Amino acid sequence: MGSLTPVPAATTEPAFAGWFATDDSGDTHLIGGKCTACATYVFPPRETNCPNPACDSDTLALVPLSRRGTVWSYTENRYAPPPPYPSPDPFEPFAVAAVALEEEGLIVLGKVVEGTLAADLTVGMEMELTTMALYTDDAGVVRTTHAWRIAK
User: How far is CA 87 from the centre of its chain?
Assistant: First the structure.
């Protein structure tokens, strides 16, 4: 009987560096920019150029954002993106949700986890943050992104 060779685990890395992080408890949170002058938030994160037109600050701190929010709007993508964007083959429709983070006064758009379609969502429904595989790059690295799932 031959010996079993362990199968190496797939390498995973964020598709967009700096957009989310995982804390010591294993929970994932988005990273946003927060203006040091007026406390306006922005996502995706950046460290300059406050998005508030009434503020002239050019300094934003990178901060963790809320992990939960409510569905503000949603839709379903039923068509594969054109090249050069990665798309699974065969393509499966997926939901996209705009989730309102109440504490930050911010709406964050993201895919909804596989198995959840637009028919499963309603405006005001509570959602929580997770991550999911977005695509596998040419080097075999699984690229992950933030995603929303219906809160437990």
Answer: 17
3-state SS string over 32-54?
EEEECCCCCEECCCCCCCCCCCC
| DSSP code, position 82 | P
**Consecutive H or E run containing 142:** strand 142-150
Q: What is the pTM of this model?
A: 0.86
Domain boundaries, the chain: 12-150
Neighbours of 82 (CB within 10 A): 7
- Pairwise CA distance, residues 6 & 10, whole Å: 12
Asked, as a colleague might, if the bond just before 90 is cis with ω within 30 of 0, I would say yes
Q: How far apart are CA 24 and CA 27, in angstroms?
A: 7
* Separation of alpha carbons 113 and 148, rounded Å: 6
Taken in order 26, 8, 110, 54, the sign of the CA dihedral is positive
Instruction: Find out whether 119 and 108 touch, Cβ atoms under 8 Å.
Output: no
Residue 134: how many other CB atoms lie within 10 Å: 18
pLDDT one-digit tens code per residue, 50-92? 999 999 999 999 999 999 999 999 999 999 888 887 777 888 8
